[in-house]
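Exercise 4. Each item below gives a protein and its sequence. For each, produce the structure-token representation.

Item: Zn(2)-C6 fungal-type domain-containing protein (Talaromyces amestolkiae).
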Amino acid sequence: MAQDGMVSLAGGLPHPSLFPIDRAAFTVTNPESFKDVTVSGNLDLDVNNLSNPKLSDFIQYGNCTGNARLRQWCLEFTQKVHRPLYKDVETLLHPGNTNAWSKVVGLLCEEGDYILCESYTYPSAQAMWIPLGNFAAPIAMDGQGIRDDELERILRSWETDHPGIRRPHVLYLVSVGSNPSGVTMGRERRQNIYDLCVKYDIIIVEDDPYFFIQYPQYDLKERLAADESKSSNEFLTSLSPSFVQLDHQGRVIRLESFSKTLGPGLRLGYFVANSIFTERLLRTTEVETQDPAGLSQVFVLSLMQRWGMDGYLTWLQSLRNQYQTRRDWMIKAFAQNFELLAASEVKSHGLKDDDGLVGCLRDASGHIVPIFSFVSPTGGMFIWSKFYLSHNSDYEQLRKSQEVEDPEQAFAEKLWMQFAENLVLLTPGSYYHPWQGAHRVTTKARGAELATTFFRFSFSMTTKEDMELGIARLAKVIRKSWKFAASPTASDPKVRVWRACRECRKKKIKCDGKEICHHCVAHSRECQYPPSNDNASANRQSVATVDQQCKVLSQLCDKVDQLANKFTVSMETLERLTTETRSLPIIDCADLDGSRAFPVDAGQDEAGALVGYHEEDETGSSSDSEVDEIGNKSDGHMALDSYGQLRYIGGPANMILVKTIQDLAATSATERNTNPLELLNTRPGETPGSASSTGISSTLPFFSQGLVWPKLPHLPAPDSVPRPPRYVSDLLVNLYFSHIHYTFPVLFRPSFMRKYQAMLDAKSSVSSSARFMSVFFAVCACASSLLPHDFEKIGSFPGLEYYEKSLLLHYRCVGQGNIEQVQCLGLLSLCSAGWNTLTQSWKFAGQAVRAAQDLGLHVDLHRVTPDPWVLVDCEHGDIDDSAMYHAVGAIAASGSSPIVRIAAAEPYMIKRALDSGAHGIMVPMCETKAQAELIARASHYRSTEFSTGIRGTGGLFAPANFNISAASYMNHANSNITVIVQIETETGVENAQEIASVPGIDMLFIGPNDLCCSMGYFAFDHKRIPQVQEAVIRVRDAAKREGKYAGYFCLSAEDAAQRAKMGFEFVNCGADIVAISSWMGSEMAKLKDLLASDQQTNGV
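Answer:
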């Protein structure tokens, strides 16, 4: 039919002229209509109108994929919102997600298969698989949906727990506003689940009708209002990512729907999946539903063309805010009828923090009794409530009865009937029990928690007034069922009530004075109070409020006292550390390789103390020969600056500056009575130039004790600079390290990732220092160029916002000398070069070099070219503690990094190895996360960044080896010592991802011989065993995913080079025994050849 001139006598399509619809018109709302409901517009569709969608094309038979223009719109919308990571993503229209899921079940499942799903699952989804003979494999949930640890447990033990049954290969879930639980899954949890699905080859079916109805968690204290409208990008950034955004293999089938965003009667949605899935789903559609309704398609396409994508996103924001407001109505209604407390306040009843909010009543003794709990929904339309039955006498009778097989279900049915009789309707939790077979129907058989039952509340349809009325009726039923007094305050201390509502006045009965009194609640009446002109009465009513405020104020005062005490202790500690820091020695760079540090003698002037730096003759000027040697390495020194950190003194730049200041001071001395350097270094209360002034001399004008960079009030503090959402920052950091870092490795990845994780884990937005934040935003700026972007909107500068934030935070701490300055400037130079602003790039590059020189990073501290690292093998080698100490010192003196491999993961062995001055430790046979956590704790001092460290502080050999004080060593050891664990068993391979995730573990090192043995093969055959090499790759990938290094044991240069190309950053090249044996064997062979040659020559 596509060929010109083709005459079709084949098809059975009715002629468009015979369609009875010539024109269709719709009155549609403007996307901003939630703010102004009077705004609307018309959609006019003509059967022959070519400017709008042609109506006849939609009434006619289609090709089962849906209208091409609408599918293209869906694809472009998907790319804007979800940014798929692979290219062949396609869309295919369907008549609603329930039908779409039925097609997926028919495509992927066979009779007897198990389907992974949430522990409470949408019943219509189950209705698709139960007739086909499929069963559910439910996964336990928490406040973020299904738990990744439970998913892995089920998959790992499947063959053991279900012998002879195929392991599930499909995961079905509603990850945003889950129906019924209302919870939304965060990015980190999604990533963990996706990684497990990759590991176990699971196809993810993401049913996501509530994706755009995401909102913040309800706060009992702040009661935040719904957000104001944001830009489209800000709105999308605020949403939790979909699995499509993480899918780099095409294993996610996403079910999109217009039902919750435009109207369920449209019966229209679309698949998002790779082309392999969409082709098979199309075949199913051809013999089942064919195209969705044409009028629905033409309406949606016309509406989207009228609104545009940004208009549609504006509509979705408004929709989100409406549902957030409705959720808040319902929770406030709970609070009006129950004592609504955080679960942490009701822990005495066995509740956990992740139970969320708890609705409570008080018994006759005034004790709090939890009735139900729920996790505040962060998406969707539902509140999933868990009722606690242990305090209900009716339930206890059912539980003790021998005739009742499932007392929880029997009580839930009875309670539901009581709700219905009182004209309030809830959905029973039993509707959502996953079908696991007829033998697993009861609460006990399902393994569910006893003495609990669930109900689902929906806040999508009901008005605020009806919602409050319904919850009041529900509270009345609960009071009666739980045998509580009708009045919420019946058990409270007797307080005189000073007012009564109109209904209680009319009937002349006692009123409790509550906002809605218990009599009005009991009789479902409107509760109103007459206005009062009695000022005394008003004052009496305020007494309770004032008392409550006084109690709160008293609690706050107690907290302030505690904080003041902590602050005093901190200040005393700071004072002590400052005193220690000021007493640290000045270090000569020329001696750092060898061994000595000398303090400044109190009776010696500082010029004398810096003998190698710049000697002066009696006249105070330097000789020509000395000036010619400016910048010579032997003239360089490391000295403590005013922050107590080592800085480099020497080189042409510093020396020229010193000379200039000296000359300036000398030539202007006649004009000024005071040398400016003396002014700079005079203590308060002293006269410049006086004998008592002990400021530094002009040979060292840089670092005056106590003179630190002032606060800069006009530059933003780290806590005031907004960070990108978690999923955006994760994406940018991963992009940087996978695509940019290797070209310009200015960062030490493990250290950066530790600080980055600490930033994310912080409870407040103040997550780190300005120094680290400047580097973080510079990384984001560099990586932004790799994201798709609209050049018309942002020009040629993707990541400019991050660039600006990085620069501001950099300048905030520019007075300090630190490595982050070098890193930040280097990254900003790289970013500017990417924008082709080369002048700015060279400027930053020069500043980075100068900052690096200031820290002495250009100084070669060693006299020989060092080998990278040497392993001191205390596991297999004949090396005791004494030999280890000697070996570590010798290796470090030669310029190499000594790494000590201990015999076992024992804290005392770790402590001894690190106390010897080792740069790192290697621990063999690490198999579990718990072992890795113990190793990390034993390797780190306790600090604010590593609060679980247990390393002892007594050893002084390590600081001595580094020529630094014990305090300085302790301040820097945690971030500079490398902790390596060896993965050498099958169990270790299985747990590699968990081991790599442990903070404080820097590297996974593979011992191939032991790993091969543990898998049942001969140790030295590991290179030719595919299963062993697959395990090696799994460990490497696990380390990479967690931002850690991977290492491999090699015996030759060729092997080491090959492993380095495979992505192993840490490889050895042989061993001492191997080297000696190889050398001796080679030399002996040569000797034999030479002797044989001589014998032949001499005719012997």
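Check: The first helix runs from residue 55 to 59.
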